[in-house]
Specification:
TIM Barrel, 10 strands, alpha/beta, six-stranded mixed sheet
Length: about 240
């Protein structure tokens, strides 16, 4: 069973908080340079740079998953990933319809740039993507699954926009089987306080907004084979 080095939570220049150098080709090239096997693009509430990222990554020999970081109705951040681009884009449309629409102010929040695989800017998202979408956290697992994807709560140890900070607990009816920690050293304390996590895969991603913050290839996940479907299956807890 292959062990894949990974970084499954990366932001591009489409996220208003993403650096201007976080273009699809630059992300793919930096990931290839660092030797990562699999990456995922997860902009706030949008997958509109995923087509470019997947094209660039394929040309550089990096497996890339399309996705987005949803800000739920409770302002909990959760990563949703998909094996297929068309499923990710359909999910993108669903979330965008439920995004609270406030015009972006690039001079305040940052630009939200949509790019081609060669990093040519072809558009700019007009609505602020860091707002909440009208989707509750407890519906997000089944929703992502219905599109052929997977959901995991992001950076759960953070003091803002995390499952534990915003809800204060893990809902008893939760179905997620993977959880993300930015700081893996917090794991034992969190598992003691929240036994649900003892049955989860625990991963640590960069949540990179700058190229230099993309994760080095230290941590791995097992996969039955080197395919997006196998990675999604592992994240679902299917093996």
């Amino acid at each position: 069973m292959p062990e894949l080095t990974y970084d499954l939570h990366i932001h591009s220049c489409l996220s208003p908080c993403g650096d201007g150098d976080m273009t699809p080709y630059n992300i793919a090239a930096m990931s290839a340079l660092k030797g990562l096997d699999v990456i995922a693009l997860t902009d706030h509430n949008s997958a509109k740079n995923c087509p470019a990222l997947l094209e660039a990554a394929q040309g550089l020999g990096v497996m890339a998953l399309p996705g987005l970081e949803v800000c739920t109705a409770e302002e909990v951040h959760a990563v949703c990933l998909f094996a297929q681009l068309d499923a990710a884009m359909a999910f993108d449309a669903f979330i965008y319809d439920r995004l609270i629409k406030i015009p972006n102010k690039p001079e305040v929040f940052g630009a939200q740039l949509i790019c081609r695989a060669d990093d040519t800017v072809v558009g700019e998202e007009p609505h602020l993507l860091i707002n909440a979408a009208e989707v509750p956290f407890d519906e997000l697992w089944d929703l992502a699954l219905s599109y052929g994807g997977v959901m995991f709560p992001a950076h759960i140890e953070r003091t803002s926009n995390s499952l534990l900070s915003n809800l204060g607990f893990i809902p008893p009816a939760s179905k997620f089987r993977t959880a993300e920690l930015k700081d893996i050293h917090a794991l034992h304390t969190l598992m003691a306080a929240h036994p649900y996590l003892q049955g989860c895969h625990i991963i640590s991603n960069s949540d990179a907004h700058y190229l230099e913050h993309i994760r080095e290839p230290g941590l791995t996940i097992p996969a039955k084979d080197r395919t997006p479907e196998a990675v999604i299956a592992w994240l679902r807890g299917e093996y």
